[in-house]
Amino acid sequence: MRVNYHPILGKDERKKLVKIVVDGREMMAVKGEPIAAALLANGIRKLRKTRKKGEYRGVFCGIGRCTDCAMIVDEIPNIRTCITPVKEGMQIITQEGLGKWERK
Ligand code: FES
């Protein structure tokens, strides 16, 4: 959920929406907001699975320190989504364990 209208500040007209793809599903995000914020606004709370126990993790610190929000972004694993801004057309995948580097 987002704050689209503030009773004192009014409506923020500066927001530009972009399209992102998360686990194969297209969704909208505000350009420049952290990926994790866009995912939370779209109802996604599980961002990665731990390597040993396979437990889900989500946003914990929100400032780029804990890596609980690590995901695969545009084929690069271990991207801390709480501090990485959204861009048009980003491909975001829930990370399992340590993630895999795709060698080309
Ligand atoms: S939530 Fe801790 S690094 Fe992103």
Summarize the structure.
By secondary structure, the chain is mainly β.
Description:
The protein has a single domain (15-96), classed as Ubiquitin-like (UB roll) (Roll). The chain contains 1 helix and 10 strands, in the order E-E-E-E-H-E-E-E-E-E-E. The protein has one helix at residues 35-41; strands at residues 5-6, 10-11, 17-22, 25-30, 48-49, 56-57, 70-73, 76-80, 91-93, 95-96. The strands form 3 sheets. The protein has a 5-stranded mixed sheet with strand order 4-3-9-7-8, with helices on one face. The longest helix has 7 residues, at 35-41. The chain is globular, with a radius of gyration of 14 Å.
Can you give keywords for this protein?
about 100 residues, mainly beta, Ubiquitin-like (UB roll), five-stranded mixed β-sheet, three-stranded mixed β-sheet, 1 helix, globular, binds FE2/S2 (inorganic) cluster
Helicity level, as a percent range?
Answer: under 10%
* CATH fold-level assignment: Ubiquitin-like (UB roll)
| Percentage beta strand | 25-35%
Q: State the total count of DSSP E strands.
A: 10
The CATH architecture:
Roll
Oligomer: single chain
Class from helix and strand fractions: mainly beta
Count of all domains: 1
Mean pLDDT: 92
Characterize the overall form: globular
For the record, the CATH class is Alpha Beta
Biggest pleated-sheet summary: 5 strands, mixed
SSE ordering: EEEEHEEEEEE
How far the N terminus sits from the C terminus, by CA atoms, comes to: 38 Å
Read across the widest sheet, the strand sequence of neighbours is 4-3-9-7-8
List low-confidence stretches: none
